[in-house]
Structures are given as C-alpha cells and as structure tokens.
C-alpha cells in the first residue's frame, strides 16, 4: 500500500555549527515559501544553538529539534540535557537512538525507549532511529535487527502524531553509499507491517523516514519509495541550498505517490 502520509524532511547537524551557522538556518527560512506546503521541515542543530535557532525560525514553519536528551527529568547528571530543557529552548522534536549514540555512547534500545518516554512526557515529537550495520546486512540480518530495535526502542504509548521512525542503515551514514530502492522498500514495508501489528491505525499513520547519504542527486528516487515518508539528512542539511534542494523534490513526487 502506497504511503500518503505528510512527509517530514529533517536535518541533523550533529556536532557541527556555531552562531555563524544561523546564516544557513536563516537561508532555509527564506527558502520555505518555495517549498510545497504539504511537507514538514525540521532542523536539529547542536544543543548550544537551539534557542537561537528557534528565534531565527520564529514565525516560520521551520521546526527546531534536539539530537538527544536524558531519560531522567533532572538531577545530578553533569553535562546532560533533559527533555524539558529542550522544550524550554524552543525545541519541538528530538532525535533519539541515532546509531552514533548507540555505537559511540553505548546506548541500548532499552535506554532509547526510556529517553523516548521522557521526551513524550514533555510533549516532544520523538524521532527514533534504527538500522543495521554493514556486517548485519551482509549476514542477511537487516530485517531482524530492525525488528529487534523497533520492538525495544519504541514505547508502548507511541502515537502517529508524536513518534517518527527513522531507518538509517549504519553503513550508509556519511559514506555516500545508499541501499538500492528495492532494499529501502523492503525494510520500510517491514517496519510498516510491524508498526501496524503493534499500534493498528496509529502504526499505519506513523511516519518512517529514510536516512543515510541523502542528497539532492538521489532524493527523488529515495523519497518516492512506498512507506518512505521523508528523510533524516546529515551532511547535506548543513548548507541551506542542499537542504532546500532535497525538500524541493516533493514538488515532483507528492502527487504521484
Ligand atoms: O542523522 C542523519 C544521518 O546520520 C545521515 O547522515 P548523512 O546524511 O550525512 O549520511
């Protein structure tokens, strides 16, 4: 069944950007009117920029999010940021369980789920990332890994309005490599079936983003695939012109999906 959900085009700036990068954010805001009204747009800058980014985006339809939050609401957790703090700075969304967090900071799916519960409790829309490594794909385990991560990372109370899934094959992140359209279609259809089995009509309406080396040159093909309801973009979200070029492909594909 072809997905007709409202797409979300999201940028993850990772640990990139200082105050000067707000020029790129302002350029994205300036370019919004040229994009289809039927898509949502989100930039997740580093935590240090969220408040200023929120001010830059104020009055526009550009949404601002965080890249991580702590699972506890407050306390003696030096260096950490709570979901409430993200909201207080103007974030409406948060990315959780990115493979860089899972790999470099040993975040388990159980921890991701606890963070998601904390974020949802503070009213943040939560983007939960899942995806297999290259070794796992080569071993034919991509679907089972995604299934395990999805089951353990997404809270029981997930709803379509508040949870977004991002499928990011680890081997495609920052490498210039992407899965074939058939491989993306297979994984997204699998995730959709799992979401529907667990959440019923809410699972049918939950957006599933693709992430991993999305650029203007491949966006049209990737974003037109069934059950690909948008993109989570790393490197190509750092420059306004690249990000806007990716989002603009929805001029061509929204009517044909
Ligand atoms: O969160 C974004 C992903 O890690 C994708 O990054 P990338 O577009 O640089 O491959």
Automatic annotation (TrEMBL):
Q: Where in the cell is it found?
A: Cytoplasm
Q: Which InterPro entries match?
A: Aldolase_TIM (IPR013785), TIM_sf (IPR035990), TrioseP_Isoase_bac/euk (IPR022896), Triosephosphate_isomerase (IPR000652), Triosephosphate_isomerase_AS (IPR020861)
Q: Which SUPFAM superfamilies match?
A: Triosephosphate isomerase (TIM)
Q: Where does substrate bind?
A: 12-14, 174, 213, 234-235
Task: State the Gene Ontology terms under molecular function.
Answer: triose-phosphate isomerase activity
Matching entries from NCBIfam families are given as: tim
- Family note: Belongs to the triosephosphate isomerase family.
Biological role: Involved in the gluconeogenesis. Catalyzes stereospecifically the conversion of dihydroxyacetone phosphate (DHAP) to D-glyceraldehyde-3-phosphate (G3P).
Annotated protein name in UniProt? Triosephosphate isomerase
Please give the organism.
Answer: Rhizobium alvei
């Amino acid at each position: 069944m072809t997905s007709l959900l409202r797409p979300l085009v999201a940028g993850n700036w990772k640990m990139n950007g200082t105050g000067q990068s707000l020029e790129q954010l302002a350029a994205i805001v300036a370019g919004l009117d040229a994009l289809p009204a039927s898509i949502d747009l989100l930039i997740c800058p580093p935590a240090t920029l969220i408040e200023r980014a929120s001010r830059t985006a104020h009055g526009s339809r550009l949404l601002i999010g965080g890249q991580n939050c702590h699972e506890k609401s407050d306390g003696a957790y030096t260096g950490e940021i709570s979901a409430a703090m993200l909201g207080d700075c103007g974030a409406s969304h948060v990315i959780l369980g990115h493979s860089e967090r899972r790999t470099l900071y040993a975040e388990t799916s159980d921890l991701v789920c606890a963070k998601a519960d904390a974020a949802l409790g503070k009213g943040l829309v939560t983007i939960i990332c899942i995806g297999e490594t290259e070794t796992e794909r080569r071993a034919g385990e991509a679907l089972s890994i995604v299934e395990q991560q999805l089951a353990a990372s997404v809270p029981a109370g997930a709803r379509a309005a508040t949870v977004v899934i991002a499928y990011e094959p680890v081997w495609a992140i920052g490498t210039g490599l992407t899965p074939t359209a058939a491989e993306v279609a297979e994984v997204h259809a699998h995730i959709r079936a799992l979401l529907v089995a667990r959440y019923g009509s809410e699972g049918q309406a939950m957006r599933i983003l693709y992430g991993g080396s999305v650029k203007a040159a491949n966006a049209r093909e990737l974003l037109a695939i069934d059950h690909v309801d948008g993109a989570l973009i790393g490197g190509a979200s750092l420059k306004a012109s690249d990000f806007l070029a990716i989002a603009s492909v929805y001029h061509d594909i929204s009517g044909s999906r």
